[in-house]
C-alpha cells in the first residue's frame, strides 16, 4: 500500500507517488476510485519531471465532474501516510507491511543502494519465471473531428483492427466540449507482439473519423 511518509506536495512526497505509479495506473485496482480522488485533491500541482505522477494527475482530473460516483471507500489522507504540513505521518496499523524500497530512516545513499538491490532481485526473479507472457492493460482516448462524427462507426472501425496479441475490451463515450465526445476504449496487449505506437497509427489511419489517439492509462498485468 502507498505510504507517502509526510507532505505529499514536497519533493520527497511527489517522488514516492511517482515511484508508486510507475507500474500502476491507479492508486488501487484497475479503475479510478475514491482513493485517487482524495490524493488528487491533496495535491497542489504535479511537475512534468514526475512523469508517472503527472500522467496520473492529468488523467484523474478528467474525472472531477463524476468524482462522487466513483467506487471505493473514502479513506483519509493519513491512511496513505500523508501529513498536512510535511510532518510525520500517522502511525501504521499493520506492522507486517513490507517496504520494498527501504526505510526512510536510512541515510539517502544506503536507502538508494538497498532500493536498487531489491529491484534487481525482483527483476531477476521475474525473468526466471517460466511461461510468463508480459501483458498490459491499456486505455486509449480516441478523439473525433467534431460533434457530427459517427461515433458508432468510428468504434466499429477501431474494433476492426486485428493484431496478434491484441484483445479489445470495454468502451464508453466521454464528453469533451461543445457537444463533442471522445471514445475511451480498453485493450489488452501482449507486450512482445503489439506496439502501442503502431496500434495508434492504425487507428489514426481512419482519418475520416479520427483526429488523434492518446494513451489515457497503461497498466502492466
UniProtKB/TrEMBL annotation:
Enumerate the spans annotated as Translation elongation factor EF1B beta/delta subunit guanine nucleotide exchange domain: 135-221
Which InterPro entries does the annotation name?
Answer: eEF-1beta-like_sf (IPR036219), EF-1_beta_acid_region_euk (IPR018940), EF1B_bsu/dsu (IPR049720), EF1B_bsu/dsu_GNE (IPR014038), Glutathione-S-Trfase_C_sf (IPR036282), Transl_elong_EF1B/ribsomal_bS6 (IPR014717), Transl_elong_EF1B_B/D_CS (IPR001326)
Q: Where is this region: Disordered?
A: 84-113
Residues annotated as domain Elongation factor 1 beta central acidic region eukaryote: 100-126
State the source organism's domain of life: Eukaryota
May I have one GO cellular component term? cytosol
Task: Give a yes or no for keyword Protein biosynthesis in this entry.
Answer: yes
* UniProt keyword Amino-acid biosynthesis present: no
- Biased composition of type Acidic residues is found at 93-111
Q: Name the keywords, alphabetized.
A: Elongation factor, Protein biosynthesis
One term of GO molecular function: guanyl-nucleotide exchange factor activity
What family does this belong to? Answer: Belongs to the EF-1-beta/EF-1-delta family.
- PANTHER family given for it? EF-HAND AND COILED-COIL DOMAIN-CONTAINING FAMILY MEMBER, ELONGATION FACTOR 1-BETA
- Protein name, please? Elongation factor 1-beta
Species lineage, top-down? Eukaryota, Metazoa, Ecdysozoa, Arthropoda, Chelicerata
The gene designation is EEF1B2
